[in-house]
Amino acid sequence: MNYEEFSDLKSIKLKETSLVKCFELESGSRFFIEPPFYTQLMSLKEIYPDEFPRVIAQMKKLANERKYVGFVYDFENPFVQLDGYIYLEITDVTDPIKVFYEDKSRGSDYGD
User: Fold this and answer.
1) Cα–Cα distance between 78 and 28 in angstroms, integer?
2) Tens-digit pLDDT profile for residues 69-85
3) pLDDT at 15
4) What is the spatial distance between Cα 99 and Cα 96, in angstroms, rounded to a whole number?
5) Which one in 6, 8, 14, 62 has a CA-CA gap of 20 to 30 Å to 53?
6) What is the distance of C-alpha 3 from the center of its chain?
7) pLDDT tens digits for 3-29?
8) What does the alpha-carbon distance between residue 87 and residue 69 come to, in Å, rounded to a whole number?
């Protein structure tokens, strides 16, 4: 899968896994994106197309500040665990810039 939003960055192959895309910023900072996080990102793009560039910029900013970041669906259960990486979920990216994402794909709270 091509992540065209990050085509301006150097793509890195992780020896630990081929399941995730990893990118390197000019500063040497790196981040990877789990497929479910990318799915959330694409949903966000549909909901807030005008805010989407700010979200991408925030992702790059967070990666630059924290050096090694994994953008994951669930920080308690990441698909890939890499030493030295900080795990962030979609709301860790969007809430600080006041773009609020609600994951409505979760199951119902109503039981039968």
Assistant:
1) 23
2) 999 999 999 988 889 99
3) 83
4) 8
5) 14
6) 11
7) 899 999 999 988 887 878 999 999 999
8) 6
Secondary structure (H, E, C), the chain: CCCHHHCCCEEECCCCCCCCEEEECCCCCEEEECHHHHHHHHHHHHHCCCCHHHHHHHHHHHHHHHCEEEECCCCCCCCCCCCCCEEECHHHHHHHHCCCCCCCCCCCCCCC
For residue 10, the cross-strand partners are 24
Let me know the angle formed at the C-alpha of 69 by 63 and 34, rounded to the nearest 5 degrees.
115
Q: How many CB atoms lie within 10 A of CB 10?
A: 11
Q: Environment class of residue 3 by beta-carbon count within 10 Å: exposed (0-12), middle (13-18) or buried (19+)?
A: middle
Q: How many CB atoms lie within 10 A of CB 21?
A: 20
d(CA 30, CA 70): 9
